[in-house]
Hints:
single chain; alpha/beta; Metallo-beta-lactamase, Chain A; 8-stranded mixed β-sheet; 11 helices; 41% helix
Amino acid sequence: xxxxxxxxxxxxxLAWLLCACLAGRAQQSSLYPVVQGKNYKFQKIAxxxxxxxxxxxxxxxxxxxxxxxxxxxxxxxNDNDVLIVxxxxxxxxxxxFVADIKLLTDKPVRTVVNxxxxxxxxxxxxxxxxEVQIIAHEYVRQAIEKFDILHNEPFRxxxxxxxxxxxxRFTKQIAVEKDPxxxxxxxxxxxxxxxxxxxxxxxxxxxxxxxxxxxxTDKLVLHRGGREIDLLFLGxxxxxxxxxxFLPKExxxxxxxxxxxxxxxxxxxxxDEWLKTLDALKRLDFTVDLPGHGAPFTNKGLITAFxxxxxxVLAQVAKLRAQGISADEAASQVDLTxxxxxxxxxxxxxxxxxxxxxxxxxxxxxxx
Length: 368
């Protein structure tokens, strides 16, 4: 049973770190023009607005993204400067991002928005000097200052376990693959992963958690030349301080991990509030969502589908908890496969263990 629990927890954890869901992949296709940088691929969503996904030496990891650079990022090129949404997993990732932005514009980065406090969205903050405003909800500053984020989740297990798990995964696939072409492709992915792992181990030693230097509570409206950029706190959800970046003229939102095109990590969540916050998100006048992981999507029905998933998680876990079943056992037993039609990254029974542990902790908090 222990090995089964580990496998389920690992697979879900690895999926969270590595994989854009298949539905998101399909939507990504060729809808948007692409500018290819050394480390980042930029999809042009609208005039001056780009969605950035990371690659490694021009080669694709599983589902096309470099997990060692973390979240998918957004670039907003304004009349005189650049605003970016999130900064990646490390100073090295952030420097690579800024270098590739020069392919889009020679305007300087003057504003950074952190959608929330997780390491893969904020650990590149330290490369920016005092001339750059790093803006986030006030909770993000508190979290970075008070939490030991380099020794707690989601940083701890993601950075310690996932790289070696990827190497093991490719090694096992190579051992059983008979087709020469597919085997060669896997061997290349293994070599790329090993190289990226070495760089990642080096890069994380440079991380210096850096909180935002500008914070807000409910709403902050930025005017950058002729562009309006609204920073909105719609309520707690994925974390205690999620920012939605709303571009009202362009009808675009950047939702970080509050809403992805796949199943989001739930280890810091406030579940009942998350459902209500997603209702508020759906009321915004947008036509494209640029999430922190996955791919751009245009169908608000995906938000409703994720709300259904969250509700199902809560209902099933409540029953299992009432039976005296532990969080780790519950993670191996919940059956969310009914939601695979909307989130094809659900491949079988079970859920990511850190998320289910958080459900138990949240339920305990509510009883106090």
